[in-house]
């Protein structure tokens, strides 16, 4: 672009800005003119019933409240004036040879006052620009879509998620559904020329949203729950892979001297199985078992209060492997029956399992050294 072209564009832009400013000034002045014209008309008509409005005034005031000045006018010229409590301005003026009506009109203009008329009563209040009560203009969303390449560009700054989703749905062949808990979530993102699905995922990740693709043309977005966080992987990729982790923050037990606990669990679908990633620091065992069970999506029952705390860092564990490791060294165990996991004390009847052990010519008496005490009592 040449310097001449740039200069021409700058002149046009400056001209447009000045024109818009002039239009705004004209509009404001027009509203004030209409207001003052109406006040003048009403005062002129009221003067037939209140002759004091046509009497001339000689007065010099300095730092006097408008309310006190109006009360003085009312008493001196037999007017019925009521002053609203919000009229608190002070005035310094000199009036000579002008009518009371003209003084009232001048004060309305000078101090932004408005008058209501009820019969021969004049109610004086502060004037409020009616445009201030209008709803704010709808912000134009900066979302563009290239239908030929099926790519979208987003330039968002604190825009409402529901409006963004509507815009994407209108422009593209993709349906974006927002659950109620995320309707008003503010979204900030800049994404240029990216496939719609990838753009939605990137936007969700950067704004801490849960992203779910239900079919080839439908995406569902919702806010993270209070006990969830995003766990990112391969962050160097343009379209990062991430999962949602269940998290908790809790105080440790009395035996742990009040040390803070932390827990993060997320699951990744690998083939037909979910593999769990666990990061736990001084976390109550019951919280860890509940979280890995929920993330794995298994059916489970807990038959005892799971006491104690756990610290663990492990990845790519099946649900059974995770349970086995976190319950190791505790008085608890688990068993699986008809796709339901039963978790409780090892001595609990539903947890015990039967297993055939080959003796290999050993005597039964020699096994007493290897049997648990609770079995010897049976």
Can you describe this structure?
The protein is of the alpha+beta class and 378 residues long. Among the domains are: 26-130, Phage tail protein beta-alpha-beta fold (3-Layer(bab) Sandwich), CATH 3.55.50.30; 142-223, 3-Layer(bab) Sandwich (Phage tail protein beta-alpha-beta fold). Helices cover 30% and strands 38% of the residues. The chain has eight helices and 19 strands. It has helices at residues 3-46, 66-77, 100-110, 161-171, 196-206, 285-296, 319-327, 373-376; strands at residues 56-65, 80-83, 90-99, 113-118, 121-126, 142-146, 151-160, 175-178, 186-195, 209-215, 218-223, 228-233, 241-251, 260-270, 273-284, 299-302, 309-317, 332-337, 340-345. The strands form six sheets. Strands 12-13-14-15-17 form a five-stranded antiparallel beta sheet. Strands 2-5-4 form a three-stranded mixed beta sheet. A three-stranded antiparallel beta sheet has the order 6-7-9. A hairpin with an 8-residue loop joins strand 13 and strand 14. Helix 1 (3-46) packs antiparallel against helix 3 and helix 6 (285-296) packs antiparallel against helix 7. The chain is elongated. The chain starts with a helix and ends with a helix. Mean pLDDT is 81; it is low at 1-7, 13-30, 234-240 and 252-258.
């Amino acid at each position: 672009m040449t310097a001449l072209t740039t200069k021409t564009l700058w002149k046009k832009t400056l001209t447009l800005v000045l024109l818009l400013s002039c239009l705004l000034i004209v509009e404001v002045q027009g509203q004030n003119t209409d207001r003052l014209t109406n006040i003048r008309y009403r005062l002129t008509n009221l003067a037939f019933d209140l002759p004091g409005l046509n009497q001339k005034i000689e007065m010099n005031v300095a730092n006097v409240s408008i309310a006190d000045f109006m009360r003085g006018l009312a008493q001196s010229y037999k007017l019925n004036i009521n002053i609203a409590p919000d009229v608190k301005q002070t005035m310094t003026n000199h009036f000579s040879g002008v009518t009371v009506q003209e003084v009232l009109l001048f004060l309305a203009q000078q101090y932004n006052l408005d008058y209501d008329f009820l019969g021969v009563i004049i109610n004086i209040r502060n004037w409020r620009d009616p445009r201030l009560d209008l709803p704010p203009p709808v912000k134009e969303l900066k979302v563009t879509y290239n239908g030929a390449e099926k790519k979208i560009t987003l330039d968002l700054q604190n825009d409402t998620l529901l409006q963004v989703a509507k815009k994407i749905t209108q422009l593209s062949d993709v349906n974006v559904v927002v659950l109620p808990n995320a309707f008003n979530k503010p979204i900030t993102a800049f994404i240029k020329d990216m496939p719609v699905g990838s753009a939605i995922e990137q936007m969700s990740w950067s704004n801490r949203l849960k992203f779910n693709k239900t079919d080839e043309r439908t995406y569902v977005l919702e806010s993270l729950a209070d006990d969830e966080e995003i766990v990112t992987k391969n962050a160097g990729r343009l379209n990062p892979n991430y999962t949602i982790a269940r998290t908790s923050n809790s105080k440790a037990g009395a035996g742990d001297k009040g040390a803070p606990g932390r827990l993060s669990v997320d699951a990744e679908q690998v083939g037909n199985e979910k593999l769990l990633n666990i990061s736990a620091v001084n976390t109550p065992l019951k919280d860890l078992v509940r979280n890995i069970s929920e993330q794995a999506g298994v059916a489970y029952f807990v038959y005892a209060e799971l006491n104690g705390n756990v610290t663990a860092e492990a990845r790519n564990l099946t649900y059974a492997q995770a349970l086995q490791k976190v319950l190791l060294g505790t008085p608890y165990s688990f068993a699986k029956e008809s796709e339901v996991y039963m978790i409780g004390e090892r001595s609990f009847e539903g947890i015990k399992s039967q297993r055939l052990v080959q003796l290999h010519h050993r005597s039964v008496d020699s096994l007493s050294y290897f049997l648990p005490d609770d079995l010897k009592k049976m």
